[in-house]
Amino acid sequence: GGGYIGVELAGVFHALGTETHYFTRADKPLKEFDELVTSSLMAEMKKQGLTHHPHQSPAEVIRDENGGLKMKMQSGEVFGPYDQVLMATGRSANSEALQCDLAGVPRNSKGQIVVDSFQNCQGAGGVYALGDVCGKVELTPAAIAAGRRLADRLFNNMPDAKADYNDVPTVVFSHPPIATVGLTEAQAIAQYGKEAIKSYTSSFANLWYGPWQINQDDKPKTNMKIVTLLPQEKLLGIHMIGMGCDEALQGFAVALKMGATKADLDSCMAIHPTASEELVTMAPWGLSGR
Question: What is the model's pTM?
């Protein structure tokens, strides 16, 4: 599978010493993520020795006479045998048993419950739904946030409270981890036009690897990108892959949602030695709005 779970568990199994073969329908996983992080992930997977099979869609899993599992693809190719096959190819909402139609609660073709921006089930007063079953942003913190805002609206006299699904920060616990918030460079260009977008990038080896007695080019890399909207260079997206990026993103996501610019990052003093300092020292600095 080409989503979070496939990427994460492929990395876990490989890191634990299992010979791991990773299959995706596309040329690489995480197709909604920025090109910088997906290309970096594939390079790290290759360097680590994890075997990736692109453009493969499973048709059948066959158990051979020795108990091994073989993967037959829609292309006709057969891979294996393997000890185990883990399918992480997506899911549908488990809502059939709720018999939503009897209460007038609509569902879409994926079984997801249809709600408005306040988590109200359309067509059924006093019925609410939130989290993955709505198919909006299928992340645990998104469900928690929606539940808190709904409780505020229903029980805490806050009639306008609702979850904000714009610029949701997210992390993929791959090896190395990916952290991203906002628009990718491609999405920003599609929305605003190429001439209105300016991106900054940085690639470096985390100082944690400093004592490693290997060639600098062989050390795991951290790659970062800031996507900005001209002329003010307002932050539209922040994309990172590398050690510590998962912990670094939360604060920068707040800045992005508040409308920060590249100049705001430039004006913040760096904390050294950290990976996060790269986001406030990307050259050229101090030029925003010129």
Answer: 0.92
Q: At what angle do helices 35-48 and 185-192 cross, to 10 degrees?
A: 160
Among the listed residues 21, 53, 239, 272, the single catalytic one is 272
CA contacts within 13 A on the Cβ side of 23: 19
Q: What is the pLDDT of residues 138-188, one digit of tens each?
A: 999 999 999 999 999 999 999 999 999 999 999 999 999 999 999 999 999
Our answer to whether residue 175 is catalytic in this structure is no
Give the 3-state DSSP-derived string for 175-232, with helices as H, strands as E and coil as C: CCCEEEEECCHHHHHHHHCHHHEEEEEEEEECHHHCCCCCCHHHCCEEEEEEEEECCC
Closest of 82, 85, 89 to residue 68, by C-alpha: 82
Q: What share of the chain is helix, strand, coil (3-state, %, to 5)?
A: 30, 20, 45
- The pair phi, psi for residue 139, each rounded to 5°, is -135, 145
